[in-house]
Design brief:
119 residues, alpha+beta, S16 Ribosomal Protein, Chain: A, 4 helices, elongated
């Protein structure tokens, strides 16, 4: 069984509240889970202690038994000091698309020719 530690969404429309759960990876996001490990309330300020609450003993138990945390949970664990900080490289995500790059080159070329003509 592939076990994951992930978020299960609760709360009403535009008022999210998440449970941190250990679950079989084949179950739906808000479906059946094995154990509730904590809560996450994104509406609270980032410096609030109540924003993320986890039972670290149980989280460590599931990690020792091979559970894989999702990206968001991994970041929570890094902030809590349980995991080492992973290197993330989203270089391509920050780059504009091909057409936008071409337009930027054309604009730079026009600006360059305009500067030469003005001199």
């Amino acid at each position: 069984m592939a076990t994951k530690i992930r978020l299960a969404r609760g709360g009403s429309k535009k008022r999210p509240h998440y449970a941190i759960v250990a679950t079989d990876s084949r179950m739906p996001r808000d479906g059946r889970y094995l154990e509730k490990l904590g809560t996450y309330n994104p509406l609270l300020p980032k410096d609030s202690e109540d924003r993320v609450k986890m039972d670290m003993e149980r989280v460590q138990h599931w990690l020792d038994h091979g559970a894989q945390p999702t990206d968001r949970i991994a970041r929570f664990l890094e902030a809590a000091g349980v995991r080492e900080k992973a290197t993330r490289a989203n270089m391509k995500k920050a780059e504009p698309g091909k057409k936008a790059q071409e337009r930027a080159k054309e604009k730079a070329a026009k600006a360059e020719t305009a500067d030469e003509a003005a001199e």
